[in-house]
Design goal:
- Helix 1 crosses helix 4.
- The chain has one domain.
- The relative contact order is 0.23.
- It is an all-alpha fold.
- The chain has 11 helices and no strands.
């Protein structure tokens, strides 16, 4: 029961990132919103790590710094930076749906990276999942709730985080999960900073209550809470942990419908079910173990 409640809490919090980002970019440039989130969240995570873990588990060893920079670049700078930018032009529900398609990209990238042949069920899972994403997205394109440019930015981010997941699995990390998360978020923020300083619209950014509410939600419940729940689920059962990603689109579309008045249609429902089915089919062999 504890693991079930933890999984539901993770999915509910993680899926809320899209809606929170939508509210935040109403008052601030997306790059500014992202950069403030990364720098504050990374610092907070490292502070918590210093309080609860030994110093030896806080500081990376010399050989870990390049690994952290690669992981931070893929997982935070490119992925989350692209995600926030895409939210200007893509519905929040689609943002949550894209999160669930990540494991499908991982299946494809891991096959390419490791030079293995995709299994039939993996191929069918990828076809089902991407078909579902296309079905859910198509009517939103027609109704101006998404643009082609926004979807391409979002897809680039998903490819980046999928590459980060494959890379993460190939590295023998010595840091605690809290410290690892803190460093990669903080480093990702520093790597994004030059682009934010040069390209962000600082003049029209309003540092008001709505901005800080959005940033605070993205930092505490999402970056700290949801990710620590995710690491707990991974420690319990890494394979079955990915099952909880299936709930993210359901929560995401619900938040978008209630909080942002985004439409729900049969395209959305059927497309989401196809994505969930594709995720299950592609990883069915792992779940059966």
């Amino acid at each position: 029961m504890k693991q079930i409640l933890t999984g539901i809490a993770f999915a509910a919090l993680w899926a809320s990132a899209s809606a929170a980002t939508k509210f935040g970019i109403r008052t601030a440039d997306p790059l500014i919103l992202a950069n403030v989130r990364f720098l504050v969240a990374g610092s907070l995570l490292l502070l918590l790590s210093a309080l609860f873990f030994r110093k030896s588990a806080l500081w990376p060893r010399a050989f870990e710094w390049p690994q952290l920079f690669i992981f931070a670049l893929l997982n935070t700078t490119i992925y989350l930076g692209a995600f926030v930018l895409s939210m200007r032009e893509v519905a929040a529900g689609i943002g949550s749906l894209s999160t669930a398609t990540g494991p499908l990209f991982v299946v494809v990238l891991s096959a390419v990276w490791l030079g293995r042949r995709l299994k039939n069920e993996e191929i069918w899972g990828v076809v089902l999942g991407f078909s579902g994403a296309a079905l859910a997205t198509f009517p939103l394109l027609q109704n101006s709730y998404a643009t082609t440019k926004g979807l391409l930015i979002l897809m680039a981010g998903i490819l980046s985080v999928s590459a980060a997941s494959v890379y993460y699995a190939r590295v023998q990390w010595q840091l605690s999960s809290l410290a690892l998360n803190g460093w990669q978020v903080l480093i990702g923020g520093f790597l994004l900073s030059p682009f934010t300083l040069y390209f962000a619209n600082w003049q029209d950014t309003k540092w008001n209550a709505q901005f800080w509410y959005s940033v605070s939600w993205l930092i505490v419940p999402v970056s700290v809470g949801a990710l620590q729940l995710w690491f707990y689920l991974l420690r319990q059962d890494a394979v079955r942990a990915s099952l909880w990603l299936f709930l993210c689109p359901i929560f995401g579309f619900t938040y978008a419908y209630i909080l942002l008045d985004e439409p729900l249609s049969w395209h959305t429902l059927v497309g989401t079910m196809l994505v969930i089915s594709g995720l299950y089919v592609a990883q069915r062999e792992k779940f059966a173990q």
